[in-house]
């Protein structure tokens, strides 16, 4: 059994070929797709965060709106770039959205990926401290955020406050109990997966991973998952950690599917340099008839090792079409693989 959801980057463009022409379209259609996914009995609605791009950015208004429009589905991010975040303000936003959703947030966070502008986090008012690089800054922001959402008071109260205070030190409000146990880290390398486990966060692994062995993408990702789970046990954390992997999976069941994705059936892993010090491997797209997908996906070692699968959706094709793709996966592929 696996939890199955979608991951939406929320692209928009004013091209006549796009069903998502504006930022308003991207946001409102994201809500509609989450509602449709819940009606289809999917398990999760996840959203990517990119700044300075025509994609989804500030996630918490969207997460809160989806929380108010649904009742069961998990609502998450994949991922929030912690280089850009004020940890205390984020704790308030996350707490509020989680309470609106009834404790259904699953927040994926990370150092982030290459962005649209140079050092975009500087425009948001953040600078690495002396001796830090941008990755260190993201982890520092994360450490503060994780500490705050545990809910312990730390701020000295004003002896003459505008409103009465509870006794003791104060914390940002609203606080959502349990949110700390639903934080994920997007890890590209084995070392980061180990750090994720040590910090008691769940593992989120995408369609891109640092190339550390030259092996196929799914093999390297499976080994990363093993590193994470071993480190979790060594750290002595209670409970079972969760692991999600993202995939581009396009079941071809109609002529329209074939027109859009028929040529993707020959897709393969790609290796390339995405940063000066990072050679990466990108996972292939799975596009075929359901019976073919069942055979191909059964050989994906990382999917087998994960408990959660996120389907990356081509959101510019519109809500109805993406709901169709998700339904095809849930009804014609997942049962044959024992995921349902």
UniProtKB/TrEMBL annotation:
EC number: 1.-.-.-
Protein's UniProt name: LLM class flavin-dependent oxidoreductase
All residue ranges annotated as the Luciferase-like domain in the record: 8-249
Alphabetically ordered keywords of this record: Oxidoreductase
Pfam family, one: Bac_luciferase
InterPro entries registered for this protein in UniProt: Bact_Lucif_Oxidored, Luciferase-like_dom, Luciferase-like_sf
GO MF term (any one): oxidoreductase activity
